[in-house]
Amino acid sequence: MVSLDAYLLRIGLAGRTRHGLAEVHRAHATTIPFENFDSFSGSPVSLDPADLEHKIVTRGRGGYCFEHNLLLAAALEALGLDVEPMLARVRLGPPGSPRPLNHLLLRVSDSAGTWLADVGFGGGGLLDPMPFEIGTETDQSGWVYRLVEDGLEWVLQVHQDGGWTDMYGFVPQAAERIDIEVNNWYTSTHPGSSFVTGVMAGLRRPDRCLTLYVFEQAVLIERPVGGASSLTEVPIAQVPALLAERFGIPGVVVTDGRLVRSTT
Question: Is residue 255 classed as helix, strand or coil in its secondary structure?
């Protein structure tokens, strides 16, 4: 990492004397928005560490899972922690054929144990790292998560609407950098990738999850802690203001019916 101090300033921890895994994870998760405007606009997403830091820290942008979690990994390594990236298949959404390995998470070890860390799942992801072990439920400001086994995969689940919902499944094995690059390239460039065909934005707060999908239409999904999700259709003309005011994503305009974000 070029500047750990700049990263800590970006997530609101500048000047603190102690920066542990839990503190950094929650600060990152609740500060930096999830967004895929680069891939949607036709710009391949670079995972070069310096490029990630320039985009998210210096320019104040957001990103998607590969970007978020590799930036977090660099920061945690700079703080002296052991970090292993892993690839996962998202399970949320309608059932169908197996999805690609287009999600990235981290296994992190510190003096207190081994943890699943993930700040890149958009509006519905973890607030805090959770124990990297099967069956242990973890309460994060009212949001409850656990890991279960399903064949060779471990599955992250969230408790909502009275039951457990699968978020993603992964084989608990460190991913090679080349495999991360290949899956990121597919996610950000393949014409069938949802990250290319539509806009997705997310923001995590301790008391609620916010997610915006813009494909044939724009839909805002909001879930308060302990409550059911609400779905609201949003006219495309109102999306730029919504992104700026509620997601912290400024600089978006509608051009010929398509969302465009400033490159500055």
Answer: strand
Q: Which long-range contacts (CB under 8 A, 24 or more apart) does 160-166 make?
A: 160/223, 161/228, 165/92, 166/91, 166/92
Enumerate long-range contacts of 154-157, CB under 8 Å, 24 or more apart: 155/91, 156/88, 156/105, 156/116, 156/118
- Which DSSP category does 63 fall into? B
List domains and CATH numbers for the chain. 4-192 (3.30.2140.20)
> Do 146 and 157 meet the contact criterion of CB atoms below 8 Å apart?
yes
Residue 105: closest CA among 183, 46, 40, 14: 183
Beta bridge partners, 214, equal: 199, 218
89-135 per-position pLDDT tens digit: 999 877 777 789 999 999 999 999 999 999 999 878 999 999 999 99
Pick from 166, 251, 178, 209: nearest CA to 34: 209
- Gap between the Cα atoms of 219 and 238, Å rounded: 11
Residue listed under structure tokens 């292993």: 84
Distance from C-alpha of 116 to C-alpha of 216, rounded to nearest angstrom:
34
Report the catalytic residues.
65, 103, 118
User: How many CB atoms are closer than 10 A to CB 109?
Assistant: 15
* Closest C-alpha to 21, from 77, 76, 66, 82: 76
Q: Please give the span between the terminal C-alpha atoms of the chain, in angstroms, as a whole number.
A: 22
Whether the per-residue pLDDT at 264 is higher than 80: the answer is no
pTM of the model: 0.95
Confidence label for 263 from pLDDT (cuts 50, 70 and 90) = low
Q: Using CA atoms, how far apart are residues 23 and 8, in angstroms rounded to an integer? A: 11
Q: In what order do the strands lie in the sheet with 199-205?
A: 34-35, 199-205, 208-214, 218-224, 230-234
